Recover the amino acids of this structure.
């Protein structure tokens, strides 16, 4: 079924390329400029979006073996993800039940148990408390109640999703709206993580707007890769998640004499795949296929964010790949930091003056319009009504 959807999307792109057309939404959409810098609005976004939605915090290939773990901090919450001896991935608040210390420092590794660096309280891969230093002199406590605080976690399409609340308001299947079937076609399970880098950026929505926007490519990126890029976009949505492609005569010509059942999956899955509210996936050819998964996280205030660019490769051991991967990472760091986020940070400062009442998304920018409409809808929806919202959609 997912391949049929990919073929249908390719046919749609080919038709638009031949006709030199794109799909336009009904009208120009206006977003209040304050939405990008207002403190109260930002705090509501943290509570109602980043602390209620499942967030992509890791990759199956990054934690392939029992005992593999990853520790990170997201939206002010320290998180520990661990794959147990039973092969299951679990997630916890990375905070000791004794005095709250961070148990595992940020990063990835392999461990059978986790010992707190403050007083050596020890936890197993299931998060259970299995050791108390000088237990006889500490006093009577029920260790069954003192394990690490569990967080909901799900593994889909080679991605690891974690919720920042112990009780999920929205289950993973309802959240993904069937999108994971398409994401599975990217083949993350068969990749290997080959690098990661972090870039500071503006308000998370300023940054995310850019991932949904092809309109700027030949302008902002004219000195790097955009000079010959089309600025037209086609959007396909699964709830708040979107794929962005550009009608391409090159693709139309390449596939013209090939039967659809023989169209290569690598060609069918080009474009930018976004996962609401914080992930963008782009791919490149480099002795195999390289994916850049951009995980966009809010910073400490409305004016800041940071993006973790994680690179996954289908053939990392091919001759010369180490050098090519290094060049690709350096180039994309430059593009995002010195072009996208340089512009976004200046945009952020200009909006914060309050001298512009609103920003505009044109009829050709339907993806950005949908992103902001979903934000507004989720902010206005209580926990009990989230699942009906995702099932019904907003269109």
């Amino acid at each position: 079924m997912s391949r049929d959807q990919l073929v249908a999307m390719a046919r749609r792109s080919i038709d638009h390329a031949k006709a030199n057309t794109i799909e336009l939404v009904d009208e120009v959409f206006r977003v209040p400029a304050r939405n990008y810098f207002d403190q109260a609005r930002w705090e509501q976004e943290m509570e109602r979006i980043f602390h209620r939605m499942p967030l992509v915090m890791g990759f199956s290939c990054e934690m392939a073996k029992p005992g593999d773990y990853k520790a990170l901090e997201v939206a002010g919450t320290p998180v520990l993800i661990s794959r147990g001896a039973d092969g299951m991935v679990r997630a916890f608040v990375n905070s000791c039940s004794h005095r709250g210390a961070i148990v595992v420092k940020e990063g990835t590794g392999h461990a059978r148990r986790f010992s707190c660096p403050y007083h050596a309280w020890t936890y197993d891969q299931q998060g259970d408390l299995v050791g108390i230093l000088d237990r006889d002199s500490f006093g009577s406590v029920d260790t069954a109640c003192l394990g690490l605080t569990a967080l909901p976690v799900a593994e889909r399409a080679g991605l690891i999703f974690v919720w920042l609340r112990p009780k999920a308001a929205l289950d993973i299947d309802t959240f993904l709206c069937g999108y994971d079937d398409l994401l599975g076609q990217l083949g993350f399970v068969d990749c290997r993580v080959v690098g990661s880098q972090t870039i500071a950026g503006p308000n998370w929505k300023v940054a995310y707007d850019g991932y949904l926007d092809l309109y700027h490519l030949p302008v902002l990126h004219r000195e790097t890769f955009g000079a010959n890029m089309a600025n037209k976009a086609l959007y396909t949505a699964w709830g708040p998640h979107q794929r962005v492609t550009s009608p391409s005569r090159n693709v139309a010509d390449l596939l013209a004499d090939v039967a659809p059942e023989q169209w290569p999956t690598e060609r069918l899955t080009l474009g930018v795949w976004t996962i609401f509210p914080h992930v963008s996936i782009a791919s490149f050819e480099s002795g195999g296929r390289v994916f850049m998964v951009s995980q966009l996280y809010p910073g400490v205030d409305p004016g800041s964010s940071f993006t973790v660019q994680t690179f996954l490769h289908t053939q990392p051991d091919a001759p010369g790949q180490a050098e090519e991967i290094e060049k690709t990472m350096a180039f994309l760091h430059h593009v995002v930091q010195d072009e996208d986020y340089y512009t976004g940070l200046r945009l952020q400062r200009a909006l914060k003056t309050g001298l512009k009442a609103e920003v505009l998304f044109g009829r050709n920018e339907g993806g950005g319009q949908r992103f902001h409409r979903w934000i507004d809808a989720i902010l206005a929806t209580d926990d009990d009504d989230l699942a009906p919202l995702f099932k019904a959609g907003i269109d």
Q: What stands out?
A: The first strand starts at residue 29 and ends at 32.
